[in-house]
Amino acid sequence: MLHRDYLLEVIEQFVSTVSRALAQALLQRDFNAAEEVEAAVADLVQLDPETAMSLAPESLVTMMLLSGTGDAVAGYAAYALYRLGDAYDAMDKPDLAQMRRDQAVAIADSFGADVHEVPQEFKELEAKLAQ
Question: Which residue, among 125, 44, 46, has the nearest Cα to 86 in the 3D structure?
């Protein structure tokens, strides 16, 4: 019960941080906001941001498996990284965009998530971005 409550709190904080920063990254092409999304993903998977974002997709999955929380957070991490790829494309950083998408796909494939499925908690953000 305590572990579940902790995960719910972590996910709630992640959604709040990522929603704000991802909107800035996508709508304003704000590189600092994109880095904030990366830091939030790294925190979610319990890694240092610099380390997490430099890992090959398969290595990032391995680290998530070792953390023991991968199943609970995979869909959120995959969504954030995949949409971050869109932000990096808009910033004319195609290599970084592809790396984030590759990480997202690896996470989704390994944990049975779908990178194209928007988690319920991000529906409001998607509506805002669609305007």
Answer: 125
